[in-house]
């Protein structure tokens, strides 16, 4: 039965994925289901990504709460996309592949999942079951003298009442009839609320409806008896299912002063409750660890080594946990040892022949100086004698516990047996805590990778990708990182980015790494240790220390100012450093370097997470490289379609403003050109190819270059356009119709300019006279690229001193704001205000007017060509 519902829709944009995650997280936390929030967020993120990114449609998200758990449905509007069926044996592919990963996660994390299709939608759903919660723990109380036992009546009556799911009484035993005076037939079928006075427990605000829905509840309240009085009772409620599968509640009730019969005793410290009259502990684990036991793995391990050291009166103790394959042991806790230097270091389980070389058996070493290297963890620590015992769960090695002393011969088999007994008591608790930590790390890793994938997918800029890669690594995975990139297979790795959690150390680390040969670009997956930075750092620190002591010659005060940063830098990179290859499309494109400032080793889980991140980052970095290369090629080709600088025409001012529509486009369907034809004559053109973008730009290049070539052959304007028309039609399916204003201009000795123009389907040029009047300067003729037999003619125009000829493309006149359009009349009105302005000022005023006419970005290419014959005096 559905008890709650929440729904939302998200647009097909990248930021919707993060919004969907927040929506699911807030919804489930509001419902009180914090235990399953992480799994739900990860699955939702992948499915919404499939909808809004891969399918390219909006996503509808529905969260349903029921008694069994939570069901989440993600629907998109692309039902044709194929999804593997659960029952089929189809391979969903590698987890590293971007596609299909959401379904793999559903199969791994969800209790149930599936896919549903409709003619317009495809819905992927999954259900997460609520985790089983321990109802409570009953503890045995200590033995007490008779005078301290609780009082009860001669006969203790326990009323047993059963309530159905609606709160009505279905069963009423004889003790209930004796306690409250009602026969069973009188109360059966009535709501319990008719009899209960709720609540009487101090500090309890739980209502009867809430209490009857809980899996277990204990407390006191009152029952109105048949005589009208309220009888205080203590109740214990247990939620069960009847034979028909319907939920019901069994209520056990006693008189309130007899509550000890039902009440669960409070758990007290082991020192008070777990010791018998003979003084023997009933819980060896709690005696060894102490009460309360730490609830986190690191705390539990640290408490364990401290107790083990004290128990055997040792100088140090250590605990190592085994890897899943039981081939290595990882240092996780120690006391009395340089833990920072050894933490997370790994040693083999089988370190040599014989029982003393295996961590699977107890071992006692009387004197480590006689067997150097027998316990690598203790090398150089001054410890002489040591006892180690294995931690095992169901016969499987899970770790090793050891205690060491500085004196030789401190331990014997008796101490080994005592330590083994303690290890057996704590092994299960340690393994349970370890598995809990691994589960939390797994969930955190999935969330981390989901967020990282979103961020990396949100940019195609190389520098920004490098910065994101480093920022996701520091400080989450490492203290500092460096990214090396490889431009080509034959080129050397280049240090491209450095980041440290302390920004003041970045320049010093960059300088230090620049003096170190870069790591080899090995394509082998996984992290490998790189010792060169630490070695150079140690050498630099030594030289700085010697200079500070005046051992390198010269006055000490002259080198002192440089000592601080050098030592700080050396300390920052003096720890363990690992390198992970960045491999994309079967090629090493760089290396990701991670470092720590101390000898503390990287955890294997962190390295595995870093490896997953490096794969995603490498693909994003390579995509950014490809995008940058293709953008550069596109821009170079586009710039080749633009005319060179405008010629300097004596006696005529010429100005052009050009705007191509679309992000990243420098050339579109509009074009212009002004070029010399022969002595004293210049050609000019402004045109508009049908459409925008690269396809239109291709015809633009054809038209512009053909115009120059034909005009310089001495052909008249109509002949030039007729031949261009034939060239466009010869393009076949790639041809596009073209509007074009073409003309030849010849400045005259009297200060005027003679123009011969042909307007083939293009917006008519406007002539602005000195008196402010505006009129068309040509007649319309057929456009190009439509018919074969094209007959055109040219018209002659004389521009007097002070006159302006304005030529534009339809992107200017068709500028829209809602239902309004600038139009030819609006353009003419703006032009009338330009009397006395230079050609550049006229073009700029026209462009400002067009931009201000509408708030939206222009959707069409625009070109403005203004030519002005100056007067006798400069304006």
UniProtKB/TrEMBL annotation:
<dbReference type="InterPro" id="IPR036890">
    <property type="entry name" value="HATPase_C_sf"/>
</dbReference>
<dbReference type="Pfam" id="PF08448">
    <property type="entry name" value="PAS_4"/>
</dbReference>
<dbReference type="GO" id="GO:0016791">
    <property type="term" value="F:phosphatase activity"/>
</dbReference>
<dbReference type="InterPro" id="IPR036457">
    <property type="entry name" value="PPM-type-like_dom_sf"/>
</dbReference>
<protein>
    <submittedName>
        <fullName>Phosphoserine phosphatase RsbU</fullName>
        <ecNumber>3.1.3.3</ecNumber>
    </submittedName>
</protein>
<dbReference type="Pfam" id="PF07228">
    <property type="entry name" value="SpoIIE"/>
</dbReference>
<dbReference type="InterPro" id="IPR029016">
    <property type="entry name" value="GAF-like_dom_sf"/>
</dbReference>
<dbReference type="InterPro" id="IPR052016">
    <property type="entry name" value="Bact_Sigma-Reg"/>
</dbReference>
<dbReference type="InterPro" id="IPR000014">
    <property type="entry name" value="PAS"/>
</dbReference>
<dbReference type="Pfam" id="PF13492">
    <property type="entry name" value="GAF_3"/>
</dbReference>
<dbReference type="InterPro" id="IPR013656">
    <property type="entry name" value="PAS_4"/>
</dbReference>
<feature type="domain" description="PAS">
    <location>
        <begin position="160"/>
        <end position="190"/>
    </location>
</feature>
<dbReference type="InterPro" id="IPR003018">
    <property type="entry name" value="GAF"/>
</dbReference>
<keyword id="KW-0378">Hydrolase</keyword>
<dbReference type="InterPro" id="IPR035965">
    <property type="entry name" value="PAS-like_dom_sf"/>
</dbReference>
<dbReference type="Pfam" id="PF13185">
    <property type="entry name" value="GAF_2"/>
</dbReference>
<dbReference type="InterPro" id="IPR003594">
    <property type="entry name" value="HATPase_dom"/>
</dbReference>
<dbReference type="Pfam" id="PF13581">
    <property type="entry name" value="HATPase_c_2"/>
</dbReference>
<dbReference type="InterPro" id="IPR001932">
    <property type="entry name" value="PPM-type_phosphatase-like_dom"/>
</dbReference>
């Amino acid at each position: 039965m559905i008890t709650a519902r929440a729904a939302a829709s998200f647009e097909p944009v990248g930021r919707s994925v993060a919004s969907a995650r927040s929506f699911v997280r807030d919804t489930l936390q509001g419902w009180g289901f914090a235990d399953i929030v992480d799994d739900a967020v990860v699955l939702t993120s992948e499915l919404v990504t499939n909808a809004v990114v891969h399918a390219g449609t909006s996503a509808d998200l529905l969260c349903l709460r029921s008694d069994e758990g939570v069901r989440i449905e993600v629907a998109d509007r692309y039902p044709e996309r194929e999804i593997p069926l659960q029952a089929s044996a189809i391979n969903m592919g590698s987890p590293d592949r971007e596609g299909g990963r959401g379904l793999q996660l559903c199969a791994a994390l969800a209790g149930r999942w599936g896919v549903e299709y409709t003619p317009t939608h495809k819905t992927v759903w999954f259900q997460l079951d609520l985790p089983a919660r321990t109802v409570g723990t009953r503890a045995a109380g200590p033995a007490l003298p008779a005078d301290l036992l609780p009082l009860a009546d001669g006969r203790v009556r326990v009323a047993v009442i059963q309530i159905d799911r609606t709160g009505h009484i279905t069963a009423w035993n004889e003790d209930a009839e004796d306690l409250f005076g009602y026969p069973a037939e009188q109360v059966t079928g009535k709501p319990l609320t008719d009899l209960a006075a709720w609540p009487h427990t101090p500090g309890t605000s739980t209502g009867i409806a809430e209490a009857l829905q809980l899996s277990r509840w204990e407390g006191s309240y009152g029952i109105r008896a048949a005589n009208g009085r309220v009888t205080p009772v203590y109740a214990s409620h247990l939620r069960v299912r009847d034979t028909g599968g319907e939920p019901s509640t069994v209520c056990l009730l006693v008189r309130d002063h007899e509550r000890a019969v039902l009440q669960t005793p409070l758990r007290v410290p082991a020192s008070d409750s777990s010791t018998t009259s003979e003084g023997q502990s009933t819980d060896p684990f709690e005696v060894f660890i102490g009460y309360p036991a730490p609830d986190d793995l690191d705390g539990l391990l640290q408490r364990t080594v401290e107790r083990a050291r004290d128990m055997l009166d040792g100088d140090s103790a250590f605990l190592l946990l085994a890897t899943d394959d039981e081939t290595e042991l990882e240092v996780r806790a120690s006391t009395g040892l340089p833990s920072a230097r050894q933490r997370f270091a790994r040693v083999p389980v089988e370190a040599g022949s014989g029982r003393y070389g295996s961590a699977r058996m107890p071992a006692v070493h009387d004197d480590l100086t006689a067997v150097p290297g027998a316990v690598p963890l203790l090398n150089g620590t001054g410890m002489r004698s040591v006892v180690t015992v294995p931690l095992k769960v169901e016969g499987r090695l899970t770790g090793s516990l050891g205690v060491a002393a500085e004196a030789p011969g401190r331990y014997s088999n008796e101490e080994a047996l005592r330590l083994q007994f303690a290890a057996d008591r704590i092994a299960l608790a340690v393994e349970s805590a370890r598995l809990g930590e691994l589960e939390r790390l797994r969930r955190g890793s999935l969330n981390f990778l989901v967020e990282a994938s979103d961020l990396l997918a949100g940019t195609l800029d190389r520098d920004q990708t490098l910065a994101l890669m480093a920022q996701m690594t520091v400080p989450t995975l490492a203290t500092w990182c460096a990214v090396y990139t490889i431009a080509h297979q034959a080129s050397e790795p280049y240090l491209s980015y450095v980041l440290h959690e302390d920004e003041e150390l970045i320049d010093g680390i960059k300088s230090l790494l620049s003096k170190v040969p870069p790591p080899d670009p090995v394509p082998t997956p996984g992290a490998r240790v790189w010792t060169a930075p630490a070695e150079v750092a140690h050498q630099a620190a030594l030289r700085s220390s010697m200079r500070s002591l005046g051992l390198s010659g010269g006055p000490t005060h002259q080198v002192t100012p440089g000592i601080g940063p050098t030592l700080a830098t050396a300390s920052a990179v003096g720890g363990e450093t690992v390198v992970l290859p960045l491999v994309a499309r079967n090629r090493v494109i760089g290396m990701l370097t991670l470092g720590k400032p101390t000898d503390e080793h990287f955890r294997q889980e962190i390295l595995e997470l870093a490896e997953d991140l490096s794969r995603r980052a490498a693909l994003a970095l390579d995509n950014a490289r490809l995008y940058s290369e293709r953008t550069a090629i596109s821009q170079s080709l586009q710039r080749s379609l633009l005319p060179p600088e405008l010629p300097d025409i004596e006696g005529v001012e010429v100005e052009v403003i050009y705007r191509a529509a679309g992000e990243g486009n420098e050339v579109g369907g509009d074009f212009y050109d002004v070029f010399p034809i022969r002595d004293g004559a210049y050609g000019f053109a402004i045109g508009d190819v049908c459409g925008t973008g690269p396809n239109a730009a291709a015809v633009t290049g054809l038209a512009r270059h053909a115009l120059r070539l034909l005009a310089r052959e001495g052909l008249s304007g109509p002949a030039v356009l007729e031949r261009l028309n034939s060239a466009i039609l010869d393009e076949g399916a790639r041809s596009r119709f073209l509007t074009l204003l073409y003309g030849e201009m010849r400045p005259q000795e009297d200060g005027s300019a003679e123009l011969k123009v042909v307007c083939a389907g293009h917006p008519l040029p406007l002539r602005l006279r000195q008196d402010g009047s505006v009129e068309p300067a040509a007649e319309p003729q057929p456009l190009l690229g439509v018919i074969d037999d094209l007959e055109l003619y040219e018209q002659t125009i004389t521009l007097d001193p002070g006159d302006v000829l304005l030529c534009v493309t339809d992107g200017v006149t068709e500028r829209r704001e809602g239902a309004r359009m600038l139009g030819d009349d609006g353009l003419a009105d703006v032009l009338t205000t330009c009397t006395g302005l230079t050609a550049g000022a006229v073009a700029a005023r026209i462009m400002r007017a067009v931009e201000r006419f509408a708030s939206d970005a222009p959707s069409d290419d625009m070109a403005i060509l203004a030519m002005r014959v100056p007067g006798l005096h400069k304006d």
